[in-house]
Every structure is written in structure tokens, then in C-alpha cells.
């Protein structure tokens, strides 16, 4: 019998419960993360086979990660190869650079693991939220996604693999990307009934678990 994957879901704010339920439907065991589990360099997070960073408000989440001493343990897990999956604000936290809706570069706490520049609220305000389907390479030809005050990738490095694009205010721009063990989506797959994006992430986690390094500990 294959041992189920153990996934951590950052539970500071946002749609973490929806992520947990989706992952459990896909057969994973899930623990909600609100604080470090110990004082090691990884904060005890090395127990997981992957970690999800949900949507919310990225500035608040970054501040809480810093105040609760989770930022560095998360960054170290990502650096050592653990799969990380960020949606909406979680994507913003993963990116190297963040800009406001006006294109100005912002300074806010983040992980900087994804070689990309992301624009906050690129699709407009809450009233501009929408739901749509589009192909995501490697996942499905008709992934269902919800966009709520969604960001968008405005530029990315050559090591970043663009999985999907959606028409925005400035034409088609990336909304789903992957760089090695880091997966990001500008939308909310957890707010639909479509499990395939989460299954894609769990496949990343399974492959890492099956060939997992000792993470230097």
C-alpha cells in the first residue's frame, strides 16, 4: 500500500480550508500550519512532502510569516527542493519581485524563490472577479479557475516554465508557472470542483518523496 502524502497548508488567512479539503479529496493527509513546529532551521516543516501557500492578502501574510518565524524555514524548505504551491497571494509570496497595479516596485516580505515579477490586483477589484476555463500544460485542456483580485506574472526568468496564459488588461500573460519544485497560480483552483491542478502538485510531491534527499538534517 502506498503511503499517503503529508501536505502542509499555511493557515494564516485566506482559503486554506478549501485547499485542505481539495487535497484530502485527492488522498493526501493535511496539516494546517500556523507556527513553527520546532526551532530547527526548517521549523519542523521538513516533516511534510509539500507545502501550499493559499490566497489572502500578501502583505499581511508576509508580515505574519516574519512575526511568527516561518519565513526563513519555508524559504529553506524550498531551497532544499520541497515542492511549494502558491495560489493568488501565495504566488505573490513566492516571487522575486512584486509590483503594484500601477507597475511600481513594492517592498514587502516574501520568499523570493520564483524568478518572476508579479503584479498585484492585475485584473481589478473584487467586483471584477470572474471564473473561466483554459488549458494548463501538463494538467488539462479545460482547467476551471476562479480569479479574485488576481495577480499576474509580468516577467520571468528563462528557468520559469509558463503553464498557462489568460487575456488580461495588457494581453495574454502568464497565470500558472513552474520553476523546478515551485508551482504558482494567479487563480484559485481550490474554489472549484476541479481537482486536477492539486493532483498535478501532488504528483510533484510524490516524485520528490520517492527520491527525497536528507535535506541536510
Quick tags:
alpha/beta; 23% helix; 33% strand; single chain; Rossmann fold; 13 strands; 4-stranded mixed sheet; 7-stranded mixed sheet; 217 residues
Q: What's the overall average pLDDT, rounded?
A: 91
H/I helix tally: 5
CATH-derived architecture: 3-Layer(aba) Sandwich
Based on CA atoms alone, the radius of gyration comes out at: 16 Å
What is the number of beta strands? 13
Distance between the termini: 27 Å
Residue windows where pLDDT falls under 50 for at least 5 positions: none
Oligomer: single chain
Content-based structural category: alpha/beta
- CATH homologous superfamily placement: Class I glutamine amidotransferase (GATase) domain
The fraction of residues assigned to DSSP E strands is 25-35%
* Main sheet overview: 7 strands, mixed
Shape: globular
Question: In CATH, what is the class?
Answer: Alpha Beta
What spatial order of strands do you see in the largest sheet?
A: 2-1-3-4-13-12-11
When the domains are counted, the total is 1
Amino acid at each position: 500500500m502506498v503511503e499517503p502524502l503529508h501536505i502542509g497548508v499555511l493557515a494564516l488567512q485566506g482559503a486554506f480550508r478549501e485547499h485542505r479539503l481539495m487535497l484530502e479529496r485527492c488522498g493526501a493527509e493535511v496539516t494546517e500550519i500556523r507556527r513553527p513546529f520546532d526551532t530547527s532551521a526548517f521549523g519542523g516543516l521538513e516533516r511534510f512532502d509539500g507545502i501550499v501557500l493559499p490566497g489572502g492578502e500578501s502583505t499581511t501574510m508576509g508580515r505574519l510569516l516574519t512575526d511568527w518565524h516561518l519565513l526563513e524555514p519555508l524559504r529553506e524548505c524550498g531551497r532544499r527542493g520541497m515542492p511549494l504551491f502558491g495560489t493568488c497571494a501565495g504566488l505573490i509570496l513566492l516571487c522575486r519581485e512584486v509590483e503594484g497595479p500601477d507597475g511600481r516596485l513594492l517592498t514587502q516580505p516574501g520568499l523570493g524563490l520564483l524568478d518572476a515579477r508579479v503584479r498585484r490586483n492585475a485584473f481589478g477589484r473584487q467586483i471584477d472577479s470572474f471564473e473561466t476555463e483554459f488549458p494548463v500544460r501538463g494538467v488539462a485542456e479545460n482547467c476551471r479557475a476562479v480569479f479574485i483580485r488576481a495577480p499576474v506574472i509580468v516577467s520571468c526568468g528563462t528557468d520559469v516554465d509558463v503553464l498557462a496564459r489568460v487575456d488580461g488588461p495588457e494581453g495574454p500573460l502568464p497565470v500558472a508557472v513552474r520553476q523546478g519544485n515551485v508551482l504558482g497560480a494567479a487563480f484559485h483552483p481550490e474554489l472549484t470542483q476541479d481537482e486536477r491542478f492539486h493532483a498535478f502538485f501532488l504528483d510533484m510531491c510524490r516524485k520528490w518523496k520517492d527520491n527525497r534527499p536528507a535535506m541536510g538534517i
